[in-house]
Amino acid sequence: MTKPLLVVVGDTLLDRDVEGAVHRVAPDAPAPVLDEESVSERPGGAGLAALLAAAQDDYRVALVTALAPDAAGARLSELLTAAGIEVHALPLPGATPQKIRMRSRGQVLMRLDRGGPAQPPGDAPDGLLDLLDAATAVLVSDYGRGVAKHPAVRAALERASAPIVWDPHPGGPPPVPGVRLVTPNLSEAVGFTGDAARGSALSTAQRAGQRLRDQWRAQAIAITCGADGAILCQAGPTPLVVPAPGDAGDADTCGAGDRFAAAAALALAAGALTSEAVQDAVSAATSYVLAGGVAAALSPPAALPTPEPERIGADAAGQLAASVRERGGVVVATGGCFDILHTGHLATLRAARGLGDCLIVCLNSDDSVRGLKGPDRPLNAQADRARLLAALDCVDAVVIFDEPTPEAALSWLRPDVWVKGGDYADGGPSLPEAELVKRWDGQTVIVPYVDGRSTTRTIAAAQAAAVITTSGR
Question: What is the pTM of this model?
Fold first, then answer.
């Protein structure tokens, strides 16, 4: 079976990192002396975008670029071909551009650029038009050195039927009309539009995005905002804000824009909606930065950092309880179905958390809820309910139980305080778990519900509203 084809179009550079150690200052100038220890080379610009895309084994990747007949151009061809990328190179007058970074202990001391001013590439190679006609998706990764401005390349892009993602450059041409998605960063978007950047980053991005969409006649503009994710502007006036799923802090972001654009193009190639492609791209770019950036992405596979646990399950709850007890703290637990999380639940959970040093929620499983509430419940699966609870700042862990009551879970969890909701506040029936909790000198307490808030009432109100809406048609 033929793999789908992603065609990357743009300028390719040779990136060279010279790593070393600095132990002294030069005697003839106030400059550090770098003792070279290692040198690494990799494709940059559109070559890096192609390399990152080629790491996805489900796609063929072809690169339309420009290379000079020099050592740097030969080295780029070697690196790209070794990664399984089909290279279609326009002839480049002069020298292949290079960026050489002098680094020590992760810090760039100086960057040396080679290749001189950009020069227009020569005639397009045979097969270029056929290549773009066969593409499942196209990524234009423009670095302002002439490939995206080439007349034959632009003509082929204008005729292409595949979705196009265009990553623009301040020194490059505008995208061809009808591009599916353009991906400037916020500073680029401000520069392209001349926006005064008044107000918040969100309002600035929204204004710039809509202006660029009209100016470039693009279907959508995704403005990337670094650690804040991306803002997608489409036909409607309301933008889609896609936050980054993690905080990259001061991590190396080199290549993050290429990773974003490549991920968006691959998602569109797979048939995703533009909004879905941008969400995939934000997630991919964030993971790329958190994993160590370009150095980690192009290194042999290694064990990824352990993600932060979701604090769900018996192990998480048991370890938390043991840790709190070791430092003399109070373990609090409560339980319920939490089928539709509402303000009444939140009030109860916050009140319970205030009674000790951690709160563990014992959550009825799907089978348990069906046994208690009937075959139409729960509305939300146990995995979703557990994740929502674990995401609350007042909940420290969630443990799921299958029985009608949480007594089995309580027997090994042994909380110091067991909290029940206000059903029992007016002296009703005895609390089912109270006698069990007494066995380890635990205490059972009641906290009040918020009046008028319950899952059953919420579902009944929604069903009644649906009936009225249907009958009024």
Answer: 0.68
